[in-house]
Design a protein that fits this description.
Helices cover 33% and strands 5% of the residues. By secondary structure, the chain is mainly alpha-helical. A two-stranded antiparallel sheet has the order 1-2. It is flat and about 60 Å long. The mean pLDDT is 84.
């Protein structure tokens, strides 16, 4: 199977050096080979022991919202203020 690393890099907006193209192609080929060897899971209903989810309970906090906001290092009005990440 031929993997066009330069095309994949362009679609993903990655800058890959020409020196690393062959190594990355080998790594991706190894991952594809590994995934192709995985057994077919079939239908999800065939799973013998499905995960049991917990029952969520609604609780009322022991303190007021004004008491909670007092602990905030930064706040704007009655809201927590956090640094912009993007």
């Amino acid at each position: 199977m031929e993997i066009d690393i330069k095309r994949i890099a362009g679609l993903a907006m990655l800058d890959i050096d020409d020196d690393n193209v062959q190594k990355i192609a080998d790594d991706i080929r190894a991952v594809v080979d590994m995934v192709s060897e995985l057994p077919d899971c079939g239908e999800l209903s065939d799973v013998p022991d499905k995960m049991k989810l917990r029952d969520d309970e609604v609780t009322v906090p022991d303190c007021s919202s004004s008491e909670l906001i007092m602990n905030a290092p930064n706040r704007v009005g009655d809201c927590f203020s956090v640094p912009r990440t993007v």
